[in-house]
Amino acid sequence: MDVLSDALAALRTGRPFAALTERQGDWRVDLEPFAGAGFHVVLEGSCELLPGDGGEPVRLGPGDAVFLPHGSAHTLTASGTPDGAPPPAVLVCGAYQLDRARAHPLLADFPRVVHLPADSGRHPSVHATVALLAGELRSPGAGTDLTLPALLELFLVYLIRAWYEERTALPGTGWCKSLTDPAVGAALRALHADPARAWTVAGLADRAGMSRAAFARRFTALVGRPPLTYLTWWRLTLAASILRESDAPLATVAQRIGYTSQFAFAHAFKRAYGIPAGRYRHERRDGDDPAGDRAEVTAAAG
User: Fold this and answer.
1) Of 117, 239, 252, 269, which sits with the fewest C-beta atoms within 10 Å of its C-beta?
2) Is the pLDDT of residue 235 over 50?
3) Do the Cβ atoms of 77 and 47 come closer than 8 Å?
């Protein structure tokens, strides 16, 4: 079971959006916080990204990508040259809707801004996908309505994979570390492969090849919550995804995620999300209009 793909599928909501923009002269765009994740890629020229929290500016050149996983406020602005004349800049700006009601722990690993410079020579998949995205945006054709969302989904996976590849090489803990840990990773794969199973800490420890107490400590340290707490969290996160994407009866949803009764599931869901499961489905279903995210990207592209 690919745990990262599983997590991303549950985290994503609605449709992604992207736009191509060209800026000239001395320009500046202020982008407000939004309930999702965003990215910018410089195709030509250069610009600067100024984090809204007062962090260090990030200078972006041709091929550079920057990912904002928390949808934090930021500014894009022209960057001057030695003679003071900012060169024209061409960018691809995009946004994704995320379920912020119960943010996945993978997001906690990310800083506010992830910079993937083109001149590093790493992450060729990111830059190859950028080229395809730019081509579709510059010259839309038959099938663009299908290929563009697919490329944006692929780009999100490559962005997150690139960060994880760099993050796992560093010391520390976090959700990305848990995926590469032999013991905890094995337990996570088992949970995600069969979330409806009546898992126990002892059973998961057996999958991990550790004693019960040692496994519980290690899992909690890396994942940030105890094994069965994570299992409950994942079951309800998965339930929310099923409710958004299908017409399955509540009893069926409950069974699929491991609840023995619809009543028990309904009680747990309302406690976690603050509203009944049926109402959640009604309010979140067909959430394909990324209004807030689209507005932010349009502001950057306008």
Assistant:
1) 252
2) yes
3) yes
